[in-house]
């Protein structure tokens, strides 16, 4: 997938002039450009009846928060082609506080709505806008392909519940770049369906590029995978990540019953400041849609490379915890320097892999010399033996054949 091939050409234009424009949920059409003036603000209604109730996602089987249906996003579209949502940094404000209060008071009847959700769509651009105060997740492309998300500012109070920033979900050929995100949940999180529903629907997330992301989140991670990953996640390259004042830096979340996989993940050039747990892999995250999931459906977590990481004011360097009978394999860390406050900076179990130039000294499960058959994913299409990995900071990276970065507007 080449990012400079992600072209969208809206045939019609909806221009939003300067001013404050109150609206309920509305649907987009194909071949459309939605363009906001710099002083335009689209404001989401605080009347829940203005947000229609729609069927749950088939890969989730129910609403994410509650059984049954869910509210439609403020900006919504399905089965679309060639859609551009852009502006001169105009604003889309979901006025989410009332939804957050309903959530905390347990008075919701249906799962809260995202701010922007597109389903089954391709050739989508979302750029040069500010999204704020989402009732739930902010940007949610689901079952989509050829999606470019760039130059966004995403804001919500750090105490706001589940206000994820950007959530590519069962989507492929996605580029996310040059964004600032401050919110109450994961900054960027990749998903692909929930337990037996995600396994059955079988729509993976793959070929995803993430670069130049800065942000903070009080409750969650800078970059996360899962916990809904039952359709599989693979071939993700993330670089140029800056996280401050957050609970987690890098996180993988899964559990027995998820099935699926998270593999071929390359994360590099990361800096963290005041992060409680820098790197965390959780094999017992839990949360299931119902009691019908297969407890023997174990996830495959493999070929995870994390390199060139610097962290200051770090609580715990890492918690890497697999699943009994399901060892997470080929976890490779190199050139990682974390100024940890903990006397026991690493906690590892049921994982195996390789490490080089990691400080503080990492757990013995990530051995300092490659074991038989040990491979480390280098960001290309195929893992290479760990012994062939470049070990020094600044070593030339191998070119990723499906990721090229170029602006649509160049």
TrEMBL record:
InterPro entries: GH28_Enzymes, Glyco_hydro_28, PbH1, Pectin_lyas_fold, Pectin_lyase_fold/virulence. The keyword Ribonucleoprotein does not apply. It comes from the Eukaryota. Pfam families: Glyco_hydro_28. GO terms for biological process: carbohydrate metabolic process. GO terms for molecular function: polygalacturonase activity. The keyword Iron does not apply. SUPFAM superfamilies: Pectin lyase-like. Keywords: Glycosidase, Hydrolase. Belongs to the glycosyl hydrolase 28 family. This is Polygalacturonase. The lineage of its organism: Eukaryota, Viridiplantae, Streptophyta, Embryophyta, Tracheophyta.
């Amino acid at each position: 997938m080449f990012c400079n091939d992600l072209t969208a050409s809206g045939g019609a234009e909806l221009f939003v002039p300067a001013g404050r424009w109150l609206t309920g949920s509305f649907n987009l059409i194909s071949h459309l450009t939605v363009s906001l003036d710099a002083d335009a603000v689209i404001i989401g209604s605080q009347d829940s009846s203005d947000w229609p109730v729609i069927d749950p996602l088939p890969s989730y089987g129910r609403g994410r928060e509650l059984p049954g249906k869910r509210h439609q996003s403020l900006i919504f579209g399905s089965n679309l082609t060639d859609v551009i949502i852009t502006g001169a940094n105009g604003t889309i404000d979901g006025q989410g506080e009332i939804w957050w209060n309903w959530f905390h008071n347990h008075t919701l009847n249906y799962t809260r709505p995202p701010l922007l959700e597109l389903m089954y769509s391709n050739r989508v651009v979302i750029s040069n806008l500010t999204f704020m105060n989402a009732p739930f997740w902010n940007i949610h492309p689901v079952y989509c392909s050829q999606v470019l998300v760039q130059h966004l500012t995403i804001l919500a109070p750090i105490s706001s519940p589940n206000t994820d920033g950007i959530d590519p979900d069962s989507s492929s050929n996605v580029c996310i770049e040059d964004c600032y995100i401050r919110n109450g949940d994961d900054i960027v999180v990749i998903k692909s369906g929930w337990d037996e529903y995600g396994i059955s629907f079988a729509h993976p997330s793959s070929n995803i590029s993430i670069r130049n992301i800065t942000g903070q989140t009080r409750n969650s991670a800078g970059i996360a995978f899962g916990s809904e990953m039952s359709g599989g996640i693979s071939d993700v390259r993330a670089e140029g990540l800056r996280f401050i004042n957050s609970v987690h830096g890098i996180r993988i979340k899964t559990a027995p019953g998820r099935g699926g996989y998270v593999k071929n993940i390359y994360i590099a050039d990361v800096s963290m400041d005041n992060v409680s747990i820098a790197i965390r892999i959780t094999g017992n995250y839990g949360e299931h849609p119902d009691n019908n999931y297969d407890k023997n459906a174990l996830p495959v977590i493999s070929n995870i490379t994390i390199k060139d990481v610097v962290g200051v004011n770090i609580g715990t360097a890492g918690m890497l915890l697999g699943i009994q009978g399901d060892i997470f394999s080929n976890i490779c860390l190199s050139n990682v320097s974390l100024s940890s406050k903990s006397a026991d900076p690493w906690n590892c179990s049921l994982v195996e892999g390789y490490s080089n130039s990691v400080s503080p000294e990492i757990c013995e499960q990530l051995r300092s010399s490659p074991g038989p058959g040990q491979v480390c994913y280098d960001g290309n299409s195929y893992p290479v033996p760990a012994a062939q990995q470049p070990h020094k900071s600044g070593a030339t990276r191998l070119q990723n054949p499906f990721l090229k970065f170029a602006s649509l507007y160049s």
